[in-house]
Records
---
Amino acid sequence: QVQLVESGGGLVQPGGSLRLSCAVSGSIFRIYAREWYRQVPGKQREFVAGINSEGRTDYGDLVRGRFTISRDNAKNTVYLQMDSLKPDDTAVYFCGASFGPGSPDYWGQGTQVTVSS
């Protein structure tokens, strides 16, 4: 079992920045990759960013160049630094953990990010 807890969401103006955090506990040694997804009502959950056990990162096309995923292994925490935020980035952001390639096996509860003036 793996437990994920996100934090750091909130309201920010267009062009602003936020940093999300995702702390993990449980069977950490089994985790292959950590990811961030986002979802708006009526749409499918969308891949935002991921980092695997080798430190390789990947980003969704809509956020590449603006968002940065990183991790602190000592704290078992993954971060998502979001810069140059746009209203279209408004969504519930979910942290995920995968035991192998593919979609996450475990999800956090989500944190709301709202970009609005």
Note: DSSP finds no helices and eleven strands in the chain.
---
Amino acid sequence: EVQLVESGGGLVQPGGSLRLSCATSGFTFDDYAMAWVRQAPGKGLDWVSTISWTAGNTYYAESMKGRFTISRDNAENTLYLQMNSLKSDDTAVYYCTRVNYYTHDYWGQGAQVTVSS
């Protein structure tokens, strides 16, 4: 059974940092690209970032470039998202996803990130 479990969310002040983790199991982690997708309150899903299976290539939505860093530890089957210089607009539920032929075929349960003073 494929499982994706996010952790590391919480409340942070504007300008602060958080690091999300996504522990995975049930599949060969380094066979797949992985991604983060978020959903702000009352809004649709927004793609945040994708990392290739070797971690050799990373991609970011324009508003996250320079602030967010995606990474992965293939030995630990874990995906990460380091978020710096957080803004109130970054408040959302952040989902870890598995990428399979350009589709997000498995999703975690989500981690709430709230940026507020």
Note: The radius of gyration is 13 Å.
